[in-house]
Amino acid sequence: MSEGRAIPEATVARLAVYLRVLGSLADGGLSTISSEALANAAGVNSAKLRKDLSYLGSFGTRGVGYVVEVLRERISTCLGVTEHRSVVLVGIGNLGHALAGYGGFGSRGFRIAGLFDADERRIGENISGLCVRSMDELDAVIARESVSIGVIATPADAAQEVCDRLVAAGVTSILNFAPAVLVVTDIVDVRKVDLAVELQILSFHEQRKAAGLKAVL
What we know:
By secondary structure, this protein is α/β, with parallel strands linked by helices.
C-alpha cells in the first residue's frame, strides 16, 4: 500500500465492493481478471477502478490483468479484514433479528460476539446459535471478546443511550441502523444506514426519470 496517501471514503466503499466481487470470482474458479471485466462486475468504469487500486500500490500485469487471490489479499489487508473482528449487536427487533440471522458476516471477516436487548421477553432467545443477552452483560462481553465494533438496531429514542454505553465500554466504531443522529467524540467512527433515506433518494431519481420521459413525449 502506498505510504502517506489518505484513501477517500468513497474509494474505501468501492474497495469493499471489489472484494465481494473477487470473492465470487474466486469461488467460481477464476484466477485472473482484467480491469475492464472487474470494473463491469463491480458496476464502475475501468478508469475509476484503476485509480482506486492505485492506493494499494503498483501491481497487475499489462495484457493479463490482476491475479484474483493477490488482489483479494491486498484489499483485505487494506480493509483490515484479514482476521476476524468481533462485533456486538444491540436491538433485536425485526431488523436486529434479521441482521443477527444473516450468515454472511463470517465470510467477510466479522464474528458476532453477542446479541443484546433491553426487552426481557427477548432475553434468552436463540438466533442462529447465539443467545440474546441482557444489557447488563454488555460491558463484560465487550471486554472479554475485545469488541471494537457495535451495531445499533434499536428504536430512535434508545439509540444515543446505547451508543454512549458502547463507547464507554470500549467500542470505537458503530454501525447505526436507528433513525437517529448519534453524537460521539472524534475517536469514534459512525456509519449510518437509513433505509427510508435510501428509498427517498430512489424516489427522487424515479421522479427525474418520469420528468425526462414527459419532456421527450
